[in-house]
Amino acid sequence: MTFFKGWLYCALWYSSILAGYSLLFCPLLPLLFISNKLYRYITDIFFTFWQYYPTALLEIICDSHVQVTGDAIRTGELSLLLMNHRTRTDWNFFWPTVYHCVEGKGKLAHSTKFILKDQIRHIPGPGWIMQLACFVYIQRCWQMDRLILKKYVEYVSDINYKHSLLIFPEGTDLTEATKKNSDKFAIKNDLPLYDNVLHPKTTGFVYLTQQLLYRNSLDAVYDITLIYPDTIPQNEKWLLNGKFPNVVKIHLVRYPKSVLPTSEEGLKQFLEKRWFDKEKIIKEFQATGNFLHGQILQCKRKWELYLAFIFWTILPYISLYLFLTNNWFMAIVIVHTLFLLGVNMYCKGFQNFEILLHMWKKHVYSINEKPN
Predict the structure, then answer these.
(1) pLDDT of the residue at 224
(2) Over residues 308-328, mean pLDDT
(3) N or C: which end of the chain has fewer CB within 10 A?
């Protein structure tokens, strides 16, 4: 039964991604040429509603629950979310976190993005959807990543785009090999050795935060601590085999922009202090079983999860039926996919194309506004 649950979870999850891509995202592409902001708004609603689906699968099928405490993420704000990266599967348990902790008007339109390594954007289905949903893909080369983050900041500031962006400052998940590298870095830089977290990389966070603050676009930074009290699903194979944790504990602490340092050194120390505290918090939990206290964040509208479960489970069958029987729908999906592959090849990702299109429209508008 455990093995069956794992395969069922992965099959339903992946088929929902493909169905959402073909039936919801592909027909929306023409809207981008009309309005970048409207395209973002509608795709965010679709993607946020999809985020309910992994939550439903985990709670209904896998009997795996995420307990969230602390400060709620507020809609209508642009926030950076900083979380420790314990395993490669952390993001599976982050969707329930977002479902339970985002509060405010327009919750369905408040989307959460990740900063990811560039190779992921090529994965058929998930990589494509995350491109269309405005996730940020980086090269892990600072000279290139600096330009990527600069374009991202300029774009979201220009269209006043409110959302949350999740960052894993450690850059990778905690394994025996990555811990050795982290320890070498700590010894070289006279820093404490950690057992439960890796030393965070500060350059990207500092630059991104400073740029957002400079443009008055950043509203808050959230420090997120994740702990697996029982099963630790280290990679995707664990989930495929049905090895889900019974409980995942996550705590959020909000830092409004008014308390954030603005200097490079100040932001660097701010991030390092958060990770120093995480190590202590996790060690205390391991010794006592006590986690951080705070407001319990739990969305009690269970009907939303059941609705998402029914909708996203049925959608793949509708999508497949239309693809096999409707020539127009088949053409839309094929043309969109070829377009996306071309954009990946020549623009290095859909987000670059989206930003270039916005800049071109601004340029055309400015020319038309000039007096004769």
Answers:
(1) 97
(2) 97
(3) C
Instruction: Phi first, then psi: give them for residue 42, nearest 5 degrees.
Output: -70, -45
Structure tokens at 246: 């019974």
Can you say whether the dihedral through the CA atoms of 207, 212, 215, 219 is positive or negative? Answer: negative
Q: Is the pTM of this model over 0.90?
A: yes
Count of alpha carbons within 13 angstroms of residue 298, beta-carbon side:
10
The answer to whether 166 and 81 are in contact (CB under 8 A) is yes
Name the nearest CA neighbour of 224 among 127, 96, 55.
Answer: 96
Of 83, 77, 90, the residue nearest 256 (C-alpha): 77
- CB of 267 closer than 8 Å to CB of 206: yes
Tokens at residue 60, please?
Answer: 């209904």
pLDDT band, residue 271 (cuts 50/70/90): very high
- For residues 302 and 272, what is the distance between their CA atoms, to the nearest angstrom? 38
**In this structure, is the dihedral angle defined by the CA atoms of residues 29, 116, 83 and 153, taken in order, positive or negative?**
negative
292 pLDDT tier (thresholds 50, 70, 90): confident
Q: How far apart are CA 171 and CA 181, in angstroms?
A: 12
Asked if 27 and 20 count as a contact pair (C-beta separation under 8 A), the reply is no
Measured from the Cβ of residue 192, the count of other Cβ atoms closer than 10 Å reads: 10
At 372 the pLDDT is 56
Do the Cβ atoms of 182 and 84 come closer than 8 Å? no
Among 156, 306, 296, 285, smallest CA distance to 217 is for: 156
Taking residues 172-199, report their average pLDDT: 95
Rounded to an integer, what distance in angstroms lies between the CA atom of residue 113 and that of residue 80? 10
CA angle 217, 213, 114 (to 5 degrees): 65
pLDDT digits (tens, 9 = 90+) for 6-56: 999 999 999 999 999 999 999 999 999 999 999 999 999 999 999 999 999
Specify the amino acid at residue 87.
Answer: T
Count the Cβ atoms, other than its own, within 10 Å of residue 237: 12
Task: For residues 2 and 332, give the distance between their C-alpha atoms in angstroms, rounded to a whole number.
Answer: 39
Where do the H-state alpha helices sit in the chain? 2-20, 29-34, 36-56, 90-101, 126-132, 142-158, 176-188, 203-214, 236-240, 264-288, 302-325, 327-346, 350-369
